[in-house]
Amino acid sequence: xxxxxKRIFTALAVAxxxxxxxxxxxxxxxxxxxxxxxNPEEPGTGGGSGGSTTAAYILQxxxxxxxxxxDGTGKRVKIRGYSRFATPGNDRRDADYINVRCTxxxxxxxxxxxxxxxxxxxxxxxHFETPWIPNGAVLRTVHVACSHYATKNGVVYxxxxxxxxxxxx
Length: 169
Hints:
The protein is mainly β.
């Protein structure tokens, strides 16, 4: 099998496997609040007699395909990428700082992307479009990758998310 056919086959296989399910990513490290400083709003401060520990917070990273755009000569995909900071019970909590950076790379190597950040936020998102794919193009897969970052009480939470999207003819 030629190298170019192998790349096409690999890209199509990855795209087929990634369609329809984008699971949120989770990040570590784990930091539980100290017993000497309880705060009822914060997770993990209920006391107790030991046992297993849980992550105090989870940083979720998500990429969403929001549909196609066409100009008659080609198509591109509208993308939303976001970082969400929450407790293990999925209740949103404000991070001291949170950001998201996403890029989309087309088959020819062209890229687009966006970045946003905020202080004291639980969710931050970006909206952008992938590079254009000409109607006659053979290679029609776009790679989208996002990095997600947050800090809370001096602890850094990082994760990444990525997906390949096949742009239909």
